[in-house]
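Issue 218. Parser rejects a valid record. Input:
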Amino acid sequence: MSLDLSGAEWRKSARSGGSGQCVEVALELPSAPGFVAVRHSQRPSAEVIVYTDTEWAAFLGGVRDGEFDKK
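Output the parser choked on:
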C-alpha cells in the first residue's frame, strides 16, 4: 500500500528517552482514513508500518494487558 503521508501529524511518546530510539505514530491520515502509520523517529523518510484502526486498537489492548511484557 502506498500512502501520501505529507499531511500526517506525527507524534512520539512524552516518555521518550534522550537516545532518540523512538517510534512516531500518525493516528489520523488525511489520505487514508481508518489507518494508522508508525515510523522510526530517527529515519522519518524510511518505510512506515501501516495498521488499520482495528489492528492498532488490538495492539494497544495487548500492551495495556501486558501481552508483550518479558516473562
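Fixed in the parser; the record now loads. The chain has a mean pLDDT of 89.
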